[in-house]
Amino acid sequence: MKPNDMDIDEILKRYLPRATPEEADAAGERVLKRIRALRFSHERSECKPDRAQPSINAGEEPKAIWLPARMNMTILAAVDELQGRGDPMRIILKVEELMEEMVSGSAVFLILLMMERMELVTSSPDPSEPGELDKRTFQITASGRETLAAARAAAARRAGLLEDFA
Amino acid sequence: MKPTVAQQIGMKQQQFERLFARYQRVVYCGVYSVTGNTPDAEDAMQSLFLKLIDQGFSEDSVRDPAGYLFRAGANEARQMHRAQERRSRNHTDDEVGLLRDPATDRNRGAEAMRERLLEAMDRLDPEQADILLLSVERGYSDAEIADLLGKTRGAVAMALHRAKERLKGLMCDEPKWGENQ
After folding, report:
1. A149 pLDDT band (50/70/90 cuts)?
2. What is the separation of C-alpha A119 from the centre of its chain, rounded to a whole number of angstroms?
3. Where are the domains of chain A?
4. What is the pTM of this model?
5. What is the CATH architecture assignment of A64-165?
6. Which of B9, B28, B42 to mutate against chain A (most A CBs within 10 Å)?
């Protein structure tokens, strides 16, 4: 074939390797696991709640702490939106997306564990790494869904009152 | 244990995961368009993200993070591919013959054409290859590529035209295996 006979745009369109979003996501999952193992295995163990927050050991009542209501509601909403597929890291990223600002990962992790004690969420271990707390996936409970609905209704009422006031 | 320099300036997991979630698709498209196969694309993607972690890369440091990372992915894949090629540059006479003969390509079908295209792309000047990929794979306009590379729109249009002409020539040429050494 001579160069002049060749439709290079057509060749590029037909033969340039292109990954589909699904292929990219599947590859991304595998690469992410490898990078976590290579670079962040020490950070995961450092932020395990039993080391970072010894005050919430099993059997103890959680101590009352002040938490911003918007943050709690957003974490519950994030767990709800992820529909049982949310590990702590995904939940943190979803919370940031919903709040449109950066949040403290440790704070989200701690609140998640407290919510589990309060039976607003439940968590299941990763079958391949059952001992890793930060690999657990969280799911909202019926009680959590009621709490979230009540919080949203209260927020809407407050917004209505402010509009009336204005 | 004293942290390494990379650990001191590198990014934290949360920052990395945010960056990865946002740009993993675009990086994968960049590496895959050069390698054309999943295992090599994953290796190149991993290698690039590890470098970004160690350098403490911030997306705020570049004007077009998606374009920048797409290009970085393609470059990483190109470098890895060339290193692998240098290590195993002992193609058989049959392999050379197959690539030399377009009629054989037709017999081998789309896979051979794709291989021929990738080989030719690999022999382009890296900047020409980047411009071509940004245009064809990402659908960037000449103006967007010019903005990303700090060039004029006219220069990009000319480079794109030359890249396509060179690619045509390379795809019709006999392969020159030693060219990239």
Report:
1. confident
2. 18
3. 9-44, 64-165
4. 0.60
5. Orthogonal Bundle (1.10)
6. B28
